Amino acid sequence: MNDTHLAAGTAQRRDEVPPAATRRAGLAGMIGTTIEWYDFYIYGLAAALVFGTEFFPEFSPAAGTLAAFATFAVGFIARPLGGVIFGHFGDRVGRKKALMLTLFLMGAATVLVGLLPNYHTIGIWAPILLVTLRFLQGFAVGGEWGGAVTMVAESAPDHRRGFYGSLPQMGVPLGLVLSSTVFAAISPLPDEALRSWGWRIPFLLSIALIGVGLFIRSRITESPTFVQAKESGRTRKLPAAEAFRHHWKAISLTVGLYLSAGVPFYIVSVFVLSYGTTELGLPRSVLLTGMLVAAVVEALTVPYFGSLSDKLGRRPVFLTAAAFTVALAFPFFWLLESGQTGFIWLAMLLALAVSHAGMYGPTAAMYAELFSANVRYTGTSIGYQLGGVVAGFVPLMTGALVSAAGGASWPISALWAISALIGLVSALIVRETRGCDLRSERG
């Protein structure tokens, strides 16, 4: 072996992350995103079940629910801004510090929602403060996902990046499990108790979860890829400008990839709770239990699909799942409309544990591999969160569509299918990224 090869091999070994540190980064990413998405989802559940009457009582029941979903959408408007700000911070100062800040901000906003007086107590200030806190939630989540997947992907060995990258993705179904479990526990409360104080319990529980998350994240080490980029002077003064200038195609494709998973997901996890109870007359407990079971299974299938992408490639796994999502758009609602508990649960299982998991599992590694190290946090965040802006308006859009269609579900299925087709086309265009070097100057 010549001196050049020996030096290269020594440098590579020095840059490798010890297995224990990789596992800690993966665990911290998974637990942190679980807490962040728990906070995010309990808002969506509360918007579907109680916010209409508590914060918009002057409206009709249908209009109040739409107004509550509008406040839900505000969080998504804030997400790209959070992606840019925290991405800038993470690409210039460090991934770890940015992730600590996003977790704290998300938790603080969530707890304050739980303490917020309703409209009958402080009048118009109640919905104003609710919208403000929702904006802060979205701002924090905007910087969370990109930072978590960047940190984990940069700490993982190349041949297992899909698996480790899927660990923060597990935070989505696990956060849904936590939020659904808590809401299922309080749903038997009488309506008056649920509206007056019961809905606040999930928000206040966030205090304990945030404490655990901050402790775990404080123990991880900074990404060696970021350290190397900073030491070599490759960090950028304005990562967002750099990302749009040199990675605009990657950003556009990541937006499209997100839509195919995000739009159907928010239809199932947020809108169906309202639609199923008001339009189809389904028991709230059946819907919440079905969502809980599906989310538990998805927590297992997400890392499976992430690992599968390490063997087959990111594109084949994503393309197959996106095609399945298109095919499921109309049958999903046919199963719901049957009114049979088994079919309702099957619909949710197929939508979350197969369709969503099949696309969501590989995307963390894929997104990270599309961007260079000096703009990776920013680029992944912007692409993901711009897609999230569209998905965030899904409950509001579908509510309006259903109302215009007299309660029919076909407009929702059409929206679902179109979004999945956009992701399918994006996956056909995007290059295969499995095994690329995350330390390179260009993604």
Question: Can you walk through the features of this model?
Answer:
The protein has 443 residues and is mainly alpha-helical. Helices cover 82% and strands 0% of the residues. Helix 2 packs across helix 9 and helix 2 packs antiparallel against helix 12. The longest helix is centred in the first third of the chain and has 32 residues, at 61-92.
Q: Which spans have pLDDT < 50 for at least 5 consecutive residues?
A: 1-14
Order of helices and strands: HHHHHHHHHHHHHHHHHHHHH
Question: Judging from the principal axes of the Cα atoms, what is the shape?
Answer: globular
- Measured on Cα atoms, how large is the radius of gyration? 21 Å
- What is the strand content? under 5%
TL;DR?
This protein has 443 residues and is mainly alpha-helical. It has helices spanning 3-15, 19-49, 51-55, 61-92, 95-115, 119-122, 125-155, 161-169, 171-186, 191-198, 200-204, 206-217, 224-231, 239-246, 248-278, 284-312, 314-337, 341-369, 376-392, 394-404, 410-429. The protein is built from 21 helices and no strands.
